[in-house]
Each structure stands twice: as structure tokens, then as C-alpha cells.
Design a protein that fits this description.
- The chain is an alpha/beta fold.
- It contains 5 helices and 6 strands; from the N terminus they run E-H-E-H-E-H-E-H-E-E-H.
- It has one domain: Rossmann fold (3-Layer(aba) Sandwich), CATH 3.40.50.360.
- Strands 1, 2, 3, 4, 5 and 6 form a 6-stranded parallel β-sheet that branches.
């Protein structure tokens, strides 16, 4: 049986809303990545914090989503596009699990930048997994957009 997990980090709810839609349509389990120290809710302050963490390759400690992924065959991994890459909490998740033999499907939300390096960065961290084509959504996803994407993967 193909068991599905949807893992995501979201600061301003766009990525969370996309993750929720994917979970509804795949009937997969949902896990939110929550860092020990939250980012500022002020966009400019959060941007400075994130830019600094990304430049250092920082992986924040997570207080959620640390459970084993062994039972899952397919893992959707979602992040906002932050400075052309994944959010640091997603990097923490990727570096704390073994993805050998898993199907990894990235998804992201963005303000106009698309995936940029997100798919490549996930592929680097999950080199022993099979990476399937992801979806990059500007703002929030429409249910039919997710449906069409999942159909293109042969998922539905």
C-alpha cells in the first residue's frame, strides 16, 4: 500500500493552504514543521532573519515533525520560496531523515519567483530518493490546479 505524507513549513499560511489541499486530495497524513524559535511576523524582520540563516546553512531545531517517516512511500515536501531556496525548517527536516527508496514530490508557494533552486536543493538532500515533478504556486492554489498536477503525476 502506498502511504503518503505531506510535510510543510509555512509562515504566512500560503504553503499551509496548499499542503491542506494536497492532503485532502491524496488522503495523506499531514505534518507541519514548527521550529523551536518562531520567525518574526513582521515581513521585513523575518526576511532579515531568514536571509542570515540561509547564508549560514542554518538548520533550526524542530519541535514538531520529528517522527519517523519509515512507514511512508511518498512524501510531499512543501516550503515557501525564501531567497530562491527552501525555508530553513524544511532543510532541518531533510537533514534529519533517510529518504532512501522514497518518492519525493516538492511543492512551494512564491510571490513570482517559481521554484528557483528549491527542486535542486531538495534533490541534493534526498539523493537516494526518486524526485517527481513538483508544483510552484504564486500565492494560493486553486483545487483544480492541484487536481491537474496530481493527475499529471499519475497520482489520481
Amino acid at each position: 500500500m502506498n502511504k503518503t505524507l505531506i510535510v510543510y513549513y509555512s509562515l504566512f499560511k500560503n504553503t499551509e493552504n496548499l499542503a491542506l489541499e494536497i492532503a485532502v486530495q491524496t488522503e495523506g497524513d499531514l505534518r507541519e514543521l514548527i521550529p523551536e524559535k518562531n520567525y518574526s511576523f513582521d515581513y521585513n524582520t523575518a526576511a532579515k532573519e531568514v536571509r542570515n540563516q540561509i547564508s549560514r546553512g542554518f538548520c533550526p531545531k524542530l519541535i514538531s515533525a520529528n517522527d519517523s517517516i519509515a512507514a511512508y512511500d511518498t512524501i510531499f515536501i512543501g516550503s515557501p520560496n525564501w531567497f530562491k531556496t527552501i525555508a530553513p525548517p524544511v532543510l532541518s527536516f531533510l537533514r534529519s531523515h533517510d529518504f532512501k527508496g522514497k518518492k519525493i514530490i516538492p511543492f512551494c508557494t512564491h510571490g513570482g519567483g517559481g521554484f528557483c533552486q528549491i527542486e535542486n536543493d531538495i534533490a541534493k538532500e534526498c539523493s537516494k530518493a526518486t524526485l517527481l515533478p513538483g508544483i510552484a504556486v504564486n500565492g494560493g492554489a486553486m483545487p483544480e490546479e492541484v487536481t491537474n498536477w496530481l493527475k499529471s503525476l499519475g497520482y489520481k
